[in-house]
């Protein structure tokens, strides 16, 4: 944490900031209750609710708002993504879970421990403690609900069948899909993104802990990008094939584009999802050893872009609009017909908001090669008109298919944002 040079802020800091570390220490000496009694510091518990230091504030993404964080938020260094199965059959318990998650997520987003740290030494601490002393690290926690929360095995599990959006259905099977149960589906999801993996893990771990008896982990996947420290200039991140990945995306500063392509709008389906968004997640293995034996020219033709600059083939600048009509002296398209760029772009009418992270999970025991690839996360207003048609084209024609395999898949409706005093999922349950 950097030193605060603003004296006014400093005094606020001194009056109100007791860090996670201080609170844990205090609790460890016999509980906050004891200290309170001994010192007469009646305000101590409210101090915990006080302002974070100005350094912390810079790294806090507000939890409350019209939309959830972690969708149009600038990508953080890390993601910890989990899919969950709901184990309770009781709707009230499910609602309670969402309420408890709301309280916890709001605290975590501010870099605070979940719940009360004054628990006595004869009970497990309410917060697991590994984020003690760490900043909020731009943590965002994004919650989604999957199709199976509404109907599973033809059962209307929570009386929510009528509220299931038409768009929230299992994705079709695409050619070449090699999906495994271990990375597929889920009733709920939590996407925790932060500039520190321990902070992201801490958030997920505590949320799962809170869900005990109501929901369990189904699958989990971490992901990374180059860190902000390694690339202060914040160039477009490179994927594990060494190419800039994330160049073309809707402009998150344009309300118009977001309303057209990302946020669910009134009239799109049930009202409860307005201001939410659909998340499609694919765990895509990348055969990096094969790629590394492929010539640079072949690699560039696969993507239809130059590796070094990220510019479309035949063009100069990374951010130039694609010139798909341009041909070389032999009369061939510069951007090949089976290239990833041409096929994913299509006619340009299906933009999705990509927020992908690389993953590296040790070795693929079946082949002895790396199990590494892309945790492809994308947000959109209507999967049937965005991800699905794009993936249909890619799955049938993309040259990239020689080097990748889709191993996991899920779709979730990411809930609208939460207003102060409200709770996640309120619009579904009320
Ligand atoms: C169905 C959606 C997509 C999947 C699945 C997908 C997988 C995937 N992509 C890369 C690498 C790159 N993708 C790039 C562009 C790009 N990809 C998609 C969609 C999917 N990609 C879109 C919509 C676009 C933008 C198209 C456009 O309008 O130009 C690029 C080029 C640079 C960029 O714009 O980001 C790269 C590189 C990998 C490695 C991969 C699976 C492992
Ligand atoms: Fe792509």
From TrEMBL:
The keyword Transmembrane applies. PROSITE patterns: DYP_PEROXIDASE (PS51404), TAT (PS51318). GO terms for molecular function: ferrochelatase activity; heme binding; metal ion binding; peroxidase activity. The chain crosses the membrane at residues 27-47. Residues 68-225 form the Dyp-type peroxidase N-terminal domain. GO terms for cellular component: cell envelope; cytosol. SUPFAM superfamilies: Dimeric alpha+beta barrel (SSF54909). Residues 236-419 form the Dyp-type peroxidase C-terminal domain. InterPro entries: Dimeric_a/b-barrel, Dyp_perox_C, Dyp_perox_N, Dyp_peroxidase, EfeB/EfeN, TAT_signal. It is found in: Cell envelope. Pfam families: Dyp_perox_C, Dyp_perox_N. Its cofactor is heme b. It is an enzyme of class 1 (oxidoreductase). One of its GO terms (biological process) is iron import into cell. Keywords: Heme, Iron, Lyase, Membrane, Metal-binding, Oxidoreductase, Peroxidase, Signal, Transmembrane, Transmembrane helix. Binds 1 heme b (iron(II)-protoporphyrin IX) group non-covalently per subunit. Its main location: other. It catalyses: heme b + 2 H(+) = protoporphyrin IX + Fe(2+). Its EC number is 1.11.1.-. PANTHER family: DEFERROCHELATASE (PTHR30521:SF4), DEFERROCHELATASE/PEROXIDASE (PTHR30521). Involved in the recovery of exogenous heme iron. Extracts iron from heme while preserving the protoporphyrin ring intact. Belongs to the DyP-type peroxidase family. This is Deferrochelatase. It comes from Neobacillus novalis.
């Amino acid at each position: 944490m950097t030193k605060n040079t603003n004296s006014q802020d400093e005094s606020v800091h001194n009056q109100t900031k007791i860090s996670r570390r201080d609170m844990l220490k205090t609790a460890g000496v016999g509980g906050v209750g004891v200290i309170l009694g001994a010192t007469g510091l009646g305000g101590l518990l409210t101090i915990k609710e006080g302002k974070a230091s100005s350094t912390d504030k810079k790294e806090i993404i507000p939890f409350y708002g019209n939309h959830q964080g972690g969708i149009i938020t600038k990508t953080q260094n890390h993601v910890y993504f989990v899919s969950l199965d709901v184990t309770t059959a009781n709707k009230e318990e499910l609602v309670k879970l969402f309420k408890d998650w709301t309280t916890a997520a709001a605290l975590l987003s501010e870099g605070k421990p979940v719940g009360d740290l004054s628990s006595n030494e004869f009970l497990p601490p309410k917060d697991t403690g590994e984020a003690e002393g760490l900043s909020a690290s731009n943590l965002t926690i994004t919650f989604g609900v999957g199709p199976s929360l509404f109907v599973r095995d033809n059962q209307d599990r929570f009386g929510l069948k009528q509220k299931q959006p038409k768009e929230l259905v299992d994705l079709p099977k695409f050619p070449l899909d090699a999906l495994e149960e271990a990375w597929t589906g889920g009733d709920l999801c939590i996407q925790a993104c932060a500039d520190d993996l321990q902070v992201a893990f801490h958030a997920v771990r505590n949320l799962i802990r809170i869900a005990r008896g109501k929901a369990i982990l189904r699958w989990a996947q971490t992901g990374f990008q180059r860190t902000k420290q390694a690339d202060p200039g914040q160039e477009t991140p490179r994927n594990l094939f060494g190419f800039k990945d994330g160049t073309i995306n809707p402009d998150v500063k344009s309300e118009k584009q977001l309303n057209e392509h990302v946020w669910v709008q009134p009239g799109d389906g049930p009202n409860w999802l307005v201001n939410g968004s659909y998340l499609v997640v694919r765990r895509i293995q990348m055969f990096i050893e094969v790629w590394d034996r492929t010539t640079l020219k072949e690699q560039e033709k696969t993507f239809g872009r130059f590796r070094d600059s990220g510019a479309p083939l035949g063009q100069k600048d990374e951010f130039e609009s694609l010139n798909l009509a341009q041909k070389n002296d032999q009369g061939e398209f510069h951007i090949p017909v089976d290239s990833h760029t041409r096929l994913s772009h299509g006619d340009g009418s299906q933009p999705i908001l990509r927020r992908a992270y690389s993953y590296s999970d040790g070795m693929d025991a079946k082949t002895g090669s790396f199990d590494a690839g892309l945790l492809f996360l994308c947000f959109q207003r209507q999967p049937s008109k965005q991800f699905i048609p794009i993936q249909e084209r890619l799955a049938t024609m993309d040259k990239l298919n020689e080097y990748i395999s889709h191993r996991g898949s899920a779709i979730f409706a990411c809930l609208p944002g939460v207003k102060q005093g409200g709770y996640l999922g309120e619009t579904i349950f009320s």
